[in-house]
Design a protein that fits this description.
Layout: H1 3-14, H2 20-38, E1 44-45, E2 51-57, E3 61-67, H3 70-93, H4 97-110, H5 116-130, H6 143-157, H7 161-180, H8 188-193, H9 216-228, H10 233-244, H11 248-252, E4 263-266, E5 269-274, E6 280-285, E7 295-298, H12 305-313, E8 322-323, E9 326-327, H13 330-343, H14 351-364, H15 369-376, H16 381-387, H17 395-403, H18 406-414
Antiparallel strand pairs: 1-2, 2-3, 4-7, 5-6, 8-9
Helix pairs in contact: 2-3, 4-5, 4-7, 5-7, 10-12, 10-13, 10-14
């Protein structure tokens, strides 16, 4: 309202031009009409002269109300819907943690800030940690309670540093949204920064280094087992992963337009998410896992027969890996690899272990670091060295290597 309008209103009130009591009376009448309009149950007068209606009831479904006059019954109706409106306002201003989380997560998905897979992962993190307190009202939340709660999740769920980071990200996200909506007035960022947490508290998985990659003998047996069969589409995909280091999601999303006869252009990946009915859906996303993942996967000349064989089996499909006109999904490659490992008498390994094997082979053969990070789709060589470079020598190979060391040969030859 403009200043001159406010002055005019004040003048009218001061000089009795506007009767405030009359205005209030009209507002009250309009309010009562609004409440009565919300009532969707019949109002009737019984043979006994009393007036009746039903009101909703959470436990019974509905309850019968009786008054001697229609005016008295309408007062009951107005009072009921007035209370319901106040309760709705309180809930809106003080929703549950679950409601705040879902509003935040749904909004990010709707605005395409996150992919469906990330949306589902956020839900899993929330369910895992906040399940027992999801009905807690947001205004019951205190900085002290939240700090203690986050710290207690580490021993309770035996969290790794990465799992705890995921928990912090989800917590930070939906509570920052709560603060923006003025549902809370404290900074979740400050609470997270002040957590009393040390590295030694996190659960550390006991790695079996042998299971991290296919060693020299295992790779040889696995490839031989693949070639002994009929080389179905999944088999050819597994061979392609061994010679390119592709992620299985990137493999499943390849199109023929990505192949130039020498290299594959990697620019998309498959993503998995759970729909509203709880069913997993697999879709192709038009960008790879990371920005650095946009790259060329070069095939050695001796391995280009793999692409020719795939083209022979799938000459007309849009995607490189199709069977009976349908795109081959990531889980098909994974399941097939498990069966091949069993046939090759190799410990069951996932497609990601093939990627680690590829990275280790590049490092073992002193490929230039610049080429390694380009072929792997990494941002720096430390990522490759720390997470993808493993010793692939078998025990027999290690024994042969030790046998070439003069000091050990002398000890073995001379005996006692």
């Amino acid at each position: 309202m403009e200043m001159n309008e406010i002055a005019a209103l004040q003048y009218a009130m001061e000089h009795g031009i506007i009767d405030l009591s009359y205005v209030q009376e009209q507002m009250d009448m309009a309010r009562k009409e609004e409440m009565l309009c919300r009532h969707n149950h019949k109002v009737w007068q019984g043979k006994d002269g009393n007036w009746y209606t039903y009101l909703p009831d959470m436990r019974k479904g509905r309850v019968l109300k009786k008054r001697k006059s229609r005016e008295d019954l309408e007062d009951v109706i107005i009072s009921y819907w007035g209370r319901k409106e106040e309760e709705a306002k309180k809930i809106k201003n003080n929703p549950t943690l679950l409601a705040v989380f879902e509003e935040w997560n749904d909004r990010r998905l709707r605005l395409e800030k996150i992919a469906p897979a990330t949306y589902e992962r956020n839900r899993q993190v929330f369910r895992r940690h906040f399940k027992d307190v999801s009905g807690m009202r947001i205004q019951e939340l205190t900085p002290e309670w939240l700090g203690d709660f986050l710290e207690e999740q580490i021993p309770e769920h035996k969290l790794s540093a990465r799992a705890f980071s995921n928990l912090k990200s989800v917590t930070r996200g939906f509570l920052k949204r709560a603060r923006k909506r003025k549902l809370i007035n404290f900074s979740v960022e400050e609470i997270i920064q002040e957590l009393d947490v040390s590295e030694r508290e996190f659960h550390k998985k006991e790695w079996n280094l042998k299971s991290e990659v296919f060693d020299e003998e295992e790779m040889e047996r696995t490839v031989a087992t693949l070639k002994e069969g009929k080389l179905e589409m999944a088999d050819l995909g597994i061979l392609l992963m061994f010679v390119t280091g592709l992620r299985v999601g990137e493999l499943a999303a390849l199109k023929w337009e990505d192949w130039d006869g020498c290299a594959l252009q990697i620019r998309r990946t498959e993503t998995r998410y759970r729909d509203a009915d709880g069913v997993y859906r697999y879709e192709v996303k038009d960008n790879p896992k990371t920005r650095a993942g946009i790259r060329q996967a070069v095939l050695p000349p001796e391995c280009r027969w793999i692409m020719k064989e795939i083209r022979r089996k799938n000459p007309f499909g849009e995607f490189i890996f199709e069977k009976n006109g349908r795109r081959v999904k990531t889980y098909s490659f994974r399941k097939r690899l498990y069966r091949v490992c069993e046939g090759a008498e190799v410990e069951k390994k996932s497609p990601h272990k093939i990627r680690k094997t590829y990275g280790s082979i590049l490092m073992d053969n002193q490929v230039a670091e610049k080429n390694v990070i380009e072929l792997m789709g990494h941002t720096d060589i430390q990522c490759t060295k720390n997470h993808y470079s493993r010793d692939r020598r078998s025990e027999n190979k290690k024994a042969e290597l030790l046998a070439t060391i003069p000091e050990f040969r002398i000890a073995g030859i001379t005996g006692k």
